[in-house]
Design brief:
CATH superfamily of the largest domain: Diaminopimelate Epimerase, Chain A, domain 1
Radius of gyration: 18 Å
Order of helices and strands: EEHEEEHEEEHEEHHEEEHEEEE
Largest sheet: 17 strands, mixed
Shape: globular
Strand content: 35-45%
Oligomer: single chain
Number of helices: 6
CATH architecture of the largest domain: Roll
């Protein structure tokens, strides 16, 4: 039978902005090879696969080349699709079993709020040649289980950097989070995210990166509630709230395409 698939722009309420994710609703388990082929066919930074399980759903995320442990924008997109298509009643919480444990999503004042694990960066002994890789002055903050976190001096440096993708792909991590303090009062901090090793040269808006950015900037700024901008070409807004060892990420979403997989 055809498998429904929906493309959602996440962390935005404007079509063709934010980060697009494909959401595939499964009626039965599918081979991992098939999941990866679908993700490669969609050729988006992430494709989410949902399968009913217990009181919620099993949720898996694939880039065009690999399965990943945590993804924010495709989780937000998945929750959006469940409510929009009546798979969950409005106001009901979405529960997802994932490689990062139980994740939940709920509707809150016109936003979708995700409950994710905090993923703070820890100091590391070896430092890559950041200026050579990024082309701007930068210092290494540290690493978490997925990514390297780097801070650059200002917003101009962040927006102008054009990293060496081949050098980034050689680093032993999923990707590199590059961040700076915001120059305006509208946002607390800005970021960009690069993951060529995972098949994503630059991700437009990366929810999972904010699980690292939240603890970092929360401590730096002395705040538990922050508003962030990911300064990619498409751009997106993420509200971040620290809650102990959890991070609440809020964003909006809009459906831009619906279709069916017939193979």
């Amino acid at each position: 039978m055809p498998v429904p698939i929906t493309v959602v722009d996440a962390f935005t309420d404007t079509p063709f902005a934010g980060n697009p994710a494909a959401v595939c609703l499964l009626d039965r388990p599918r081979p991992e090879e098939w999941l990866q082929k679908v993700a490669r066919e969609m050729n988006l930074s992430e494709t989410a696969f949902l399968l009913p399980e217990g009181d919620g759903f099993r949720l898996r995320w694939f880039t065009p080349t690999v399965e990943v442990d945590l993804c924010g924008h495709a989780t937000l997109a998945a929750a959006h699709v469940l409510w929009e298509q009546g798979k969950l009643a409005a106001g009901s919480a979405a529960r997802f079993q994932t490689r990062s444990g139980l994740l939940t999503a709920q509707q809150k004042d016109g936003w979708i709020e995700l409950d994710f694990p905090a993923e703070p960066a820890h100091p590391v002994d070896e430092s890559p040649n950041l200026e050579e890789i990024l082309g701007v002055p930068a210092f290494l903050v540290g690493r978490n289980r997925m990514d390297t976190l780097v801070e650059v001096p200002d917003e101009a440096a962040l927006r102008e950097l054009q990293p060496d993708q081949a050098a980034l792909a050689l680093l032993d991590c999923r990707g590199m989070i590059v961040t700076c303090r915001s120059a305006s009062r509208e946002f607390d901090f800005l970021s960009r995210f690069f993951a060529p090793r995972a098949g994503v040269p630059e991700d437009p808006v990366t929810g999972s990166a904010h699980c690292c950015l939240g603890p970092y900037w929360g401590k730096r700024l002395g705040k538990t509630v922050m508003t962030a901008c990911q300064a990619s070409v498409r751009g997106g807004i993420v509200k971040v709230e620290m809650a102990g060892d959890r991070v609440r990420l809020s964003g909006k979403a809009v459906t831009v395409m619906k279709g069916k997989i017939v193979s």
